[in-house]
UniProtKB/TrEMBL annotation:
Residues of the SIS domain: 102-244
GO MF entries: carbohydrate derivative binding; DNA binding; DNA-binding transcription factor activity
Pfam families in the record: HTH_6 (PF01418), SIS (PF01380)
Domain HTH rpiR-type intervals: 1-75
This protein's UniProt keywords: DNA-binding, Transcription, Transcription regulation
Protein name in the entry: RpiR family transcriptional regulator
Record-linked SUPFAM superfamilies: Homeodomain-like, SIS domain
Length: 247
């Protein structure tokens, strides 16, 4: 039996759901309650509470309270560090200054390209869409074999922002090498590895430091939250500088 893991929610009546929601909203007080306390709080009868307790698999109210208390304590212990993904220490001390410099380059760019693969590609799409919403010519590239060289061939004043957790993906590095000596393209990176080729290849590297997590050797589960945090910071600063310029 498990209150929080109860699977037949769809079989509960409206009265049952009122009791269920009341218990969830008052989880710390439940172990100290009597049947009539719960009934009063949920605005139902005592008998409705007992029918609910039996329906979810408990023989008595005391049995439910003991089980609920243990289950809730286990759940709280498992949740303590869920949102503690990173702190300010995960970023270089001068990250804000670098964001301002990169945003200034984006402000003057004719084309802003967000480039990434896999999960980084999804963030690239997000960044490009948001930049476009701000009125800038921006698009995302998720395919390292996309003819980006041809697309930017007759353009100038381009900024390519590459997103890569490891900064070592060979396909990404090969693509960027085509723009290293281009006077018309500025390379920026957002990466979790300051020593990586992607970080070294561009003018500015916006870096962060979080533990790398992989499963089954090939699947990267390293948190992308710091990357999104930096991208959002870039977009916010870009918007602010755009407003200042228009004054």
């Amino acid at each position: 039996m498990a209150f929080f893991g109860f699977k037949d929610i769809d079989k509960l009546s409206e009265v049952d759901m009122a009791i269920y929601r009341y218990i969830v909203d008052h989880d710390e007080q439940v172990p100290l309650m009597r049947v009539r306390d719960m009934a009063k709080g949920a605005h139902v009868s005592n008998s409705s509470v007992m029918r609910f307790i039996h329906k979810i698999g408990y023989n008595s109210f005391p049995e439910f309270k003991v089980s609920f208390k243990n289950e809730n304590q286990d759940l709280m212990r498992s949740q303590q560090n869920i949102l503690n993904i990173f702190t300010r220490d995960a970023f270089p001390h001068d990250i804000e200054k670098t964001i301002k410099l990169v945003a200034h380059l984006m402000l003057d760019a004719d084309n802003i390209v967000f480039f990434g693969m896999g999960g980084s590609g999804a963030i690239a799409e997000y960044g490009a869409r948001q930049a476009a919403s701000l009125g800038f010519n921006s698009f995302a590239v998720k395919d390292p074999f996309y003819p980006l060289i041809a697309q930017l061939q007759n353009t100038s004043n381009n900024v390519i922002i590459t997103l890569s957790v490891s900064g070592k993906t060979s396909e990404i590095v090969e693509t960027l090498n085509n723009f290293v000596n281009s006077p018309d393209t500025i390379l920026i990176s957002v990466t979790g590895n300051i020593e990586s080729p992607v970080a070294r290849i561009g003018r500015y590297a916006l870096t962060y430091n979080v533990p790398e997590t992989r499963i089954h050797k090939y699947y990267d589960l390293t948190s992308q939250v710091p990357c999104v945090y930096i991208v959002d910071g870039l977009l916010m600063e870009l918007h602010n500088q755009d407003i200042e310029r228009q004054k």
